[in-house]
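Request: Could I get any protein with tokenized structure?
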Amino acid sequence: MKSRLFVIAILLTAIVASSGCVYRMDILQGNRLSAETIGQLELGMSRRQVEFLLGEPAIVDLYNPDTWHYVYYFRSGDDFSKTKKSMKLQFENDLLAEITGDRDLSNPES
């Protein structure tokens, strides 16, 4: 009886101790763009120039193709902290007319 309780106690201790050893990866989604890259944007740039500089936008509205959305999401595997950033570019006559939102779409920890 005592050996059975001892085995159960050892198993419970092992389960509790190993539960803290689970690796959780960081989750990165969207467009990761630095402030330097975004700083190269200039009003009046063509769509092709913007796409060459920043890459394809995360979201292009089907009903308003003159609006491009660049979105960045980061969730830390360590403490589950979340970072959400977005930037919206507005085009008029295929030229960049307005930039709104976050000017740095990168992970603040890196």
Q: What stands out?
A: The first strand starts at residue 27 and ends at 30. The mean pLDDT is 84. The beta strands are 27-30, 59-60, 67-75, 82-92, 95-101. The chain has one domain: 24-101.
